[in-house]
Sequence to fold (131 residues):
Amino acid sequence: MPQPSIRPDVVVLLTDVDTSRRTPDHLYRHDGSPFTAAELDLLHTCTPAEIDAANAQRQLQDDWKREDHEMHKALVNLFTKYVDQLPDGTLCRSSDIYDLMTDQDYAECERLAEAIKARDPFGCSTEHGQG
Fold:
């Protein structure tokens, strides 16, 4: 029996379905826009293999977001660890924070900043409130 092929366009549509927003007559994307009639017709033809592929893709996306959030949180925690060490009345400038950091913390700060930048080189997630 031949293996059913997985249609990438159907998988993309399936990963974009907002499962938290359900109405009896329509499906919506994560951005809140409704699917077109043609897209709904295509979704009605999805196979179990395409559903499995979409679920796997969503899991990868969720893992990516979780890792990204953990890196941002670690960087903020590392930076704020030194804020209380600034003299009273001092403006909180990154250069002053870096001067207080141990070599190990500074290296970790640089590593995290580079990893975050590599994942989002144009700063899209921070500009658009995502991430």
About this structure: The radius of gyration is 22 Å.
